[in-house]
Specification:
Elements (H helix, E strand, L loop, with lengths): L5 E5 L10 H5 L11 E4 L11 H7 L9 H23 L2 E7 L8 H4 L13 H24 L4 E5 L1 H10 L27 E4 L2 E4 L19 H11 L5 E2 L10
Helix pairs in contact: 2-3, 3-5, 6-7
């Protein structure tokens, strides 16, 4: 079978980086030229469509003691990912740029309704702990893929650290409180971004804020363009990757 070089951006939560295909391959010194670029992950963009155990793990009101099975299944999903990567390899994919999971416990959707203990960044610590454990397992499996699929290039990107560094230093980076998201509301009334609900005869609108450029979170779950741009500037050069190479050179 003729091998077709495909570049796969594998984001495990919400990627949405503010870059274009031309950004990825720009520069005369780049040896990469990708005829096809794919972006997929284990988590869909809407939690309603996600597998049940992933939805359970991401419920903001869930307690650590009730999440043992859901957490284990979440961690075990890295095995499913490895099979998907192998299938892509069989179809000709040779360049993989793999993002790990971000700090899930820092999403306003998780942290704001949570009644338990939070850390110094306002995040739900145990959810971040599970994310970090997943990332450790993912990195080990990526190393296994490098050994088994030697014709491909696998770049592991630490999106967790990139996002956490922004969240923990939001003010100095020109952003407001990381939990102060832009569109919709969670408490005291849950209103999706762009939607409206009736509460005791009063209509409550999920309006967008007037300064999204100062917010990290758009709707409590997704990052804003401004935050994604900040994150992209930290990861595209390869400084948070293993191996530490830029995306323009992340090909065999």
């Amino acid at each position: 079978m003729t091998s077709v070089k495909m570049f796969c951006i594998l984001g495990l939560l919400v990627l949405g980086l503010a870059v274009t295909e031309s950004d990825l391959v720009s520069g005369s010194s780049s040896s990469c030229n990708f005829p096809a670029i794919y972006n997929f992950g284990i988590l869909t963009r809407t939690l309603e469509a996600a597998p049940l155990h992933l939805v359970n793990f991401h419920l903001p009101t869930a307690k650590p003691t009730s999440l043992t099975k859901s957490s284990q299944r979440f961690l075990a999903s890295s095995t499913v990912l490895m099979q998907q990567y192998k299938e892509l390899y069989g179809e000709g994919a040779r360049s993989f740029w793999i993002h790990n999971v971000g700090p899930l416990g820092c999403l306003p959707f998780m942290a704001l309704p949570y009644n338990g203990t939070i850390d110094q960044n306002g995040c739900v610590a145990y959810k971040n702990n599970v994310a970090q454990e997943f990332n450790q397992q993912l990195k080990k499996r990526v190393n296994q893929l490098r050994n088994n699929l030697s014709m491909a290039a696998f770049t592991y990107v630490d999106i967790y650290s990139a996002k956490l560094s922004l969240i923990s230093d939001a003010k100095n980076q020109g952003f407001v409180d990381p939990l102060n998201f832009c569109c919709g509301s969670f408490v005291p009334t849950f209103v999706k971004c762009g939607m409206s609900v009736q509460v005791n005869g009063t209509t409550i609108h999920g309006h967008a804020c007037g300064d999204p450029q100062n917010r990290i979170s758009w709707d409590g779950t997704h990052f804003t363009d401004a935050a994604n741009s900040w994150i992209a500037s930290r990861i595209l050069n390869g400084s948070m990757s293993d191996p530490p190479i830029s995306i323009s050179n992340a090909c065999p």
